[in-house]
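quick one before i forget lol
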Amino acid sequence: MNAIADLARAPTRRVAPPPTALFSRTGWAIVAAALAVNCVLVPIAALVVPGTSPFAISAYGLTLAGKIMCYALAAVALDLVWGYCGVLSLGHGLFFALGGYAMGMYLMRQIGREGVYQSDLPDFMVFLDWKALPWFWQGSDSFLWALAMIVLVPGTVAFLFGWFAFRSRVKGVYLSIITQALTYAAMLLFFRNDTGFGGNNGFTDFKRILGFPVAAIETRVVLFVATGLALAGGVVACRAVVRSKLGRVVTAIRDAESRVMFTGYDPLPYKLFVWTFSAVLCGIAGALYVPQVGIINPSEMAPANSIEMVIWVAIGGRGTLVGPVAGAAIVNGAKSYFTAAFPEFWLFFLGALFVAVTLFLPRGVAGLFRRRGA
């Protein structure tokens, strides 16, 4: 109950952040070094080093690393609401996919008459005999519109859901089940061909972004660096939230929400802010994911994807912010290897990894570097 005790102290006294918000200098140094390698050395190796060199990085390797960083940003977003606010979401894959769809709509409009049907409409609309763009596609040919939708769509959906859920004081396993049901319902909606989002095929065959070829190695390097900067910015922003008074209130809500209410704080705005901010970070991660991977479809909303995010956070270390980065890298790096070398054993390995971490590293990988106290 340290966080609750912190709130009761005199406001003039500096209150140390909760232990879960702290990370050792060694841990932060490792994270900073990894980001520096990703954002500096990897692009250099991709652009300058000849393909025959053992230090060369292929387009596939660059895409894989960028994809993992997108997953890492989504894991950090989930850790903010689960590790610090105590809200276990099994539906963050929805916000990830909504950001991806917002970017995908812009990329589909950039195809123009380079598509199969040589029409101003996206190919799937021509195939389904659509005569004009739906109203919600208006403005999607603007990159600024795409940036706005990447933030507003996941943020609005999260705000509305959180307002009704938190206002009704739904919590615990019931809230987790509702988030999963919301994601599953959205997936079924997007699978329909008449919704205007490509049905089960989704969006693919992207050509250009801001006029530059998506498949060009230079474009992929820029997207890779942008993803690394977004990941670093997300970790820094979440850390600023956690170390603020708002973060102490949120942590106290996690520990004992009823006691926080008795001290005069209304949990609703605090939980709603953290929940919405987390959804926006997931939307940004999804938007950066789509042009690098080259496809977005309703399967990204599958409940299993949201559950995987929870596993990343648990393995990396819940309530540490940087632990989920390590967890996402470990799990998805292993997934990339095992699904290629031993595809039939991948799920067994994932289960064994989760059990081993639970038994021997209850605080996750980050627990090896975390320090106690201020």
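fyi The first helix runs from residue 2 to 8.
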